[in-house]
Amino acid sequence: MRNIIYFDELNSTSVYSHQHLGELKNFDIISCDLQTQGHGQFERVWFSSNKNGGNVYLSIILKPQNLEHLSELTRYVALIGAKTLEEYGLEPKFKYPNDILINGKKIAGFLAESEFLGQKLKGVIVGCGINLNLDDDELKNIDIPATSIYMETNKKVNKDEFINKFLDNFENNYNDFLLNGIKGEEKL
To answer: pTM for the full model?
Structure first.
C-alpha cells in the first residue's frame, strides 16, 4: 500500500521532503493541495492553485541501492509524466531537461534532487508539478506559455485519479529503470 503524506498547504513538498528525509521511507509520497513557495529547476517559481479541482504538487522519496542510472532519473519521471498525459488524449513533447509541453506550452515539470551524507546517498527527492485544472485566468499568472489538461481537453480532471495513474506508471516501471536505465528507444 502506498504511503501518501498529505497536506492542505505546504511551502513546498520538496522543502518538506529535504527537512524530513531522514525519517521518510523509500516511496513515501509528500502531496499537497497548495504550495506557497513551489519551485522548479534553478529555483524558478512554480505557480500553485487549488481552484477547479486542483493540480499535482508532490514529491516522491526514493532511496535506491543501485545508483548506476541516478543521472537519468529526471528523464525517467518525465517519461512517466508523458505516458500518463497520453492516457488523457494529449500528445506531450519534451523540453530538455525536465519539462513537458503540450502545443508548445508547459504543462508539467520534474526535478530530481539527490542528498548525500559524505559518499552515502541519503535519498532522492523527485518533485512533480503537473497542471491538471488551471483555467485561462490562472494561466495568466505564469510567466511563460503554459497550459493544463483542462484547457486542452475542456474536461476537469480528478486529481486523486491522476495521481494514482501517475504513481502506478512510475512504480510499475521503476525496477526495470533501476536495472537498465532509460532504453535507447525511450531516450529523449
So the answer is: 0.90
